[in-house]
Structure formats: C-alpha cells, structure tokens
Amino acid sequence: MNDPRPAPVGQRRWAIAEGYIPPDSTHGDDPRLVSHETACLLNANRCDAHVAITLYFSDRDPVGPYRVTVPPQRTRHVRFNDLRDPAPVPRDTPYASVIEADVPVVVQHTRLDTRQPALALLSTIAHAEAG
Amino acid sequence: MNDPRPAPVGQRRWAIAEGYIPPDSTHGDDPRLVSHETACLLNANRCDAHVAITLYFSDRDPVGPYRVTVPPQRTRHVRFNDLRDPAPVPRDTPYASVIEADVPVVVQHTRLDTRQPALALLSTIAHAEAG
Amino acid sequence: MNDPRPAPVGQRRWAIAEGYIPPDSTHGDDPRLVSHETACLLNANRCDAHVAITLYFSDRDPVGPYRVTVPPQRTRHVRFNDLRDPAPVPRDTPYASVIEADVPVVVQHTRLDTRQPALALLSTIAHAEAG
Amino acid sequence: MNDPRPAPVGQRRWAIAEGYIPPDSTHGDDPRLVSHETACLLNANRCDAHVAITLYFSDRDPVGPYRVTVPPQRTRHVRFNDLRDPAPVPRDTPYASVIEADVPVVVQHTRLDTRQPALALLSTIAHAEAG
Fold first, then answer.
1. Closest CA of chain A from C40, distance in Å
2. Residues A31, D114, B122, B69: what is their CA dihedral angle, to the nearest 10 degrees?
3. Which of B98, B122, B106 is nearest to D124 (CA)?
4. A44-48, C2-6, C117-121: which has the highest mean pLDDT?
5. Nearest-5° angle of CA D94, CA C36, CA C77?
6. In this structure, which of A69, B18, D40, D79 has its CB flanked by the most CB atoms within 10 Å?
7. DSSP H/E element including A64
8. Residues 6 or more apart in contact with residue D35 via CB below 8 angstroms
C-alpha cells in the first residue's frame, strides 16, 4: 500500500475566549477589508470534518450549533460575520466560541479591525482541549 | 436523559506574562476605543465559575485577588482597566497575571492600543496550567 | 564529557490554520515591508533539521512538500512568499500549513500586512502536535 | 500554617521562534515607543528565578546565555534591545530564543513596531516545553 496515512493533526475540541466583530469598517467597499473575525479550520484528514460551533455571550444563552463541513485535506477560513443559521452573529458584542469536530482539526482565531483607515490584526492558535 | 453534558472545556489555572495598559488614547471619547487590556473568560460549564485574578509587578508585591464570577455558559471579557477592588491597575506599568477558577475556564489576553490614531491589537490564548 | 547536550526543544509536527498573503503592499520598494507571511523555524539541535511544509487550500488538493533544511543551532524565518518548489504560494488566497521535521523544532507564524501605509502584524506559536 | 503555597505556574524551558527588532522608530524620542521586542517573564514562585536566554541566528553560532534574575512573585518584561552581555542583539536581523529557568516561569513574546507612525503589535505565549 503506497498511501502513507500520517497520524491525524489537531484535536476534536477547541475554544476561543475572545470574540468581537467591530461595528464599522473604513474600507467596506472591499469585502476583504470589512472588519471581521475568522475561525480558520484545517482538516488534514482523508475524510470530511463535521464541525459544530457554539457561541457564548455575556448576557444571553449560547447560540448554536453552527454546522460547517470541511472537506478532506482542505482548510476553511470561516468568517463569523457570515454565520447565519441559527442566527447572525451580532456586531459590537463580546462573544466566545467552542468548536467541536468529529475528527481532529486545527483552529486559529484572527480578527481584522478596519474601524480606522490603518488595519489592525490579531491572531492566535485557539485553545486545544487534549484528549 | 436529554441533557447532554459535555466534558468541561479549559483549565483551572492560567497565566498571562505580558501586561501593559497604555497611558493615552486618541479616541478616548468612545469607551470602546480607550487603550485597554482584557482577560476574556469563557465558562462553558452549567455552574458559576468563581475566578480570582492576581496581578504581579516588577517592583512591588502582588495585588489581589480580584474576584470575578462568570455565570454558567457565559463569557466575560474583563477589562483590567475596570478592576477596582482591592486596587486600580496602574497605567503605563508592566504587570502580569495569574487567573484561577474553581471550574475549568478558557482565558485569552487582548490589548487595544490607541496611543496613535491607528489602532494596534495583540491577542493570545493565555498559558494553561495542565492538571 | 564537557558537552552538555540539553534535551531537545520542540516537536516534530506543527500546524498553522491561518494563512493569507495580502495581494498588495504600500512600501513594496523595501523587501522588508512587502506584505508577507513567515514560518519561523528554530532548530536548537546539534544536527540538521529536515523540514517538509505542506500547504492546504479551500478548493484544491494540498501542495508540497516544500523542503527546507535548518542547520544545527540555527533559525530560519521562511517566507511563504519565497516558496517556489513545487509551486509558488498564491496571493490573496486562504491557505493553511502542516510543518513536519525529522527532529524537534519550534514553529511560529507571523504576518506583516502593508496594504495600508500603516503596518499590521499578527503572530502566534503554531499548534504543536504532541508525541 | 497560614501560608498557602500554590503549585508553581509555568515551565522551566520555553522557546520563541520569531525574533526581529525593527531598525527604525518613528517616535524614538519616547523610549516606550522605540521599536522593540520583549520577553515577558512571570515568576510566581516564592524564590528567585534564575533565567538564561540563548539567542539563535540564521548565519552564526548561538549567543548567550544572557542571565536575568526575576525576584520572587515579580514579573520582568525584558527588552531584547537592552541585552548587552555577552553581546548586544543586532537590529534588522532574524533571531530566535530559548529561555531556561531553574524554577517554573511563564514567558510571553511581544513586539512593538513603530517604523511607521502607526503602531503595530504582536504577542504570543511562548512555546512551553513540557516536563
């Protein structure tokens, strides 16, 4: 068999405690420059990754799961701005997220803030729950 | 039983070695744009999380604990700027923090620096102490 | 024997779920200020580290391995912009990466975005796959 | 005995693969705004932490150890710009670092880049070597 299947990369449960979509954008005519937050998902497996994202807020019950499928050996950079079902993500509102998958994945959190003409960026590998 | 209680997410002890609240803000009339640092706390459990934050400095004894309660299945993005008891957090002063909770939580550290008209952002998942 | 060989630092498998080389640069005449992404590799061992980078995309098969050798006790800050073999990394395209080495290394991911005259930076230690 | 000594926080070996002190600063008259990199060290123990920093480069042998003592229950935000013994850290030069301590500490890496009038910031918890 000449198909070397490496050990999976990542974990099945991840969390991002920060979350905030700025309410404004200076360069809003270019969708790439709209203020946004992203959960970058990497599925290095040879099967689909079925991902469920649950959002937590400071003053209301959790919302979710938002369901995302990442095809085998693909990455999906999911914009929280684009999540619609079961409900859009409110702007200008602190939130947090738990990401669960049925196979190991890797999750990284990024924000682009264009409230001012100059860009501001943040990113971090999410918290991986071992085991 | 139709209440699936997932395994808890996070750890009970976290640390942030960076810490610095810039002394100035360009957009200080909008509280969202005041230079600030945040400890984002996610409590995905079905019970309160009682959190104690201790601050460490370079030239004085630790200050704390600052006590914060995060309700069940909620997130709180705690601004270090807003901590008052037992003492306000000095501006323009390096510090670090240890965050301890009675149930597993997830902690992420973020700074917004608006000393210049352009925003600058940093963020990282805090150091989780295993076990 | 007066050669204290410390235990190795790092892991053999790492992943970066974020990846995006901005299509433009304001200060493109200075190569240091061209919008770019970097995988910073630290090889603290006393032997070469043979590193293989595989890139994952949202809409096509993975590309790689890109092969990089880091000499003993050296760091290499590899610009994804500079990777050529087996194929250049497309600009303005989301990607992710898995980094595998034959000895333990440490990997950190950084982006410099100069689409606007003001710089924007992000960085995170990559996800280390234990074991 | 009313002195609760908590378990130590952190690890004894850390690594930062990124490292770059920008050669210029727009606001160089204010030392806080000089382009710089910092290793933020938190020593939550009740004894001194003796820390040794070794720097790795792309084209020369490692330099170090730089020795730093962090008093009990203190943080020190060490600017790489200020390291002098055994040699200053070159500007405009990629490097990496390994940080070793005789007791557990927590390490976070931060860069402030003021080559342009707008600030740019990055930060990440360093890679903790378990065990």
1. 15
2. -130
3. B122
4. A44-48
5. 30
6. B18
7. strand A63-70
8. D21, D22, D23, D24, D25, D111, D112, D113, D114, D115
Report how many Cβ contacts below 8 Å link chain C to chain D: 97
- Report d(CA D14, CA D20) in Å as an integer: 18
Sign of CA dihedral A129, C94, A87, B71: positive
Measure CA B64 to chain center.
13
Residue type, A42: L
Q: Taking the CA of residue D78 as centre, how many other CA atoms within 13 Å lie in the half-sphere pointing to its CB?
A: 22
CB contact under 8 A, B15 and D106: yes
ipTM, two decimals, is 0.94
Q: Which residues contact D31 (CB under 8 A, 6 or more apart)?
A: none
C-beta atoms of A128 and C123 within 8 A: no
Closest partner residue to B121 (CB to CB) among A15, A61, A113 is A113
* Tens-place pLDDT, residues A17-26: 999 999 999 8
Phi and psi torsions of C37, nearest 5°: -125, 145
Contact between A27 and A33 (Cβ < 8 Å): yes
Dist. CA B23–CA B90, nearest whole Å:
9
Nearest chain C alpha carbon to D63: C73
> Which of these, B19, B28, B31, lies nearest to B127 by C-alpha position?
B19
What is the residue whose two structure tokens read 């790439």?
A32
Sign of CA dihedral A107, B106, B129, B6: negative
pLDDT, averaged per 10 consecutive residues of chain D (131 residues), comes to 66 98 89 95 98 98 98 98 98 98 98 91 96 71
Instruction: Choose from A48, A123, A129 for mutation: most chain C CBs within 10 A.
Output: A123
The full 3-state SS of C17-56, as one line of letters, equals CCCCCCCCCCCCCCHHHCCEEEEEEEECCCCCEEEEEEEE
What's this model's pTM, rounded to 2 decimal places?
A: 0.96
Please give the structure tokens belonging to residue D1.
Answer: 């005995």
Chain C partners within 8 Å of D129 (Cβ): 7, 9-10
Q: Closest chain B residue to D108 measured between Cα atoms?
A: B17
| Tokens coding B9 | 């997410």
Chains near A (3 or more Cβ pairs under 8 Å): B, C
- Token pair 């938190």: residue: D42
Closest CA to B13 of A130, D15, D8, A99: D8
Burial class for D112, CB neighbours closer than 10 Å (0-12, 13-18, 19+): buried
